[in-house]
Amino acid sequence: MKRLTNQKITILDFLRGTKIHPTAxxxxxxxxxxxxxxxxxxxxxxxxxxxxxxxxxSIPGKKTRFDGNDIVHQHFICKxxxxxxxxxxxxxxxxxxxxxxxxxxxxxxxxxxxFYGRCKKCS
Amino acid sequence: MKRLTNQKITILDFLRGTKIHPTAxxxxxxxxxxxxxxxxxxxxxxxxxxxxxxxxxSIPGKKTRFDGNDIVHQHFICKxxxxxxxxxxxxxxxxxxxxxxxxxxxxxxxxxxxFYGRCKKCS
DNA sequence: CTGCATGCAAATAGTTTGCAGTAGC
DNA sequence: GCTACTGCAAACTATTTGCATGCAG
Lengths: 123, 123
Known about the structure:
Oligomer: homodimer
Structural class of chain A: alpha+beta
Radius of gyration of chain A: 16 Å
Helix content of chain A: 25-40%
Strand order of the largest sheet of chain A: 4-3-5
Number of helices of chain A: 4
Distance between the termini of chain A: 44 Å
CATH topology of the largest domain in chain A: Arc Repressor Mutant, subunit A
CATH architecture of the largest domain in chain A: Orthogonal Bundle
Order of helices and strands of chain A: HHHEEEEHE
Strand content of chain A: 15-25%
Number of strands of chain A: 5
Number of domains of chain A: 2
CATH superfamily of the largest domain in chain A: Winged helix-like DNA-binding domain superfamily/Winged helix DNA-binding domain
């Protein structure tokens, strides 16, 4: 990060404090409460920067979602209602961390697993 | 599939026979060789249908990619050059298939893991 | 023949970019 | 003070949609 601006602080604070995996627009709407003059372009630029610096993760999809939870975890998406839930499973993380060094023709430094199905409400 | 049209046959044939994980546009350009009057809208509509019917998989990203390889496999994406490679690892698939029933608060019927890193060329 | 599927063009939506002004360091 | 960062509006691009016509069943 070259310069630490108010916009960056506010966005990172928001992402660290939420579990909703917000879209760029949701970040914009929330951050706007504290910085009424912020623009969507700035939000996009800052989110891109954070992803490149590995401060947050981006979850691709129709609308990209952003995850500021810095504890290792995986995702579960309900196919019916689209809800995204965090999964914490130490054994899974450990297993995949071992695997990642064997699996590809190159160097793996990261992985991402998403489970798809139906949440309790939609079952 | 309600009706089996020439467009659907041609698109599925192409997807079953390629390993390039084409975007909707690449599907369009290739299929056009055989069906010069096909439109992009049709390609998008048919791809969506195939994904819903689980005939193919969609790989989200800036441009969605489509994977018609019906053998179970996972993905490796090079962060540098963006290349997408298939990973075949029976043990990994087996492990995840067991895990998927324990991991989420709901019913999991599918999962998708992507490894990120640098391919041999970019290392 | 019936109505789902297609082609075309226009519309939409998410994201990116150019530029002039602003503010970290 | 230098120059990266921001806000604004316009541009861009992937994808979707409305509608008239075509073709599978």
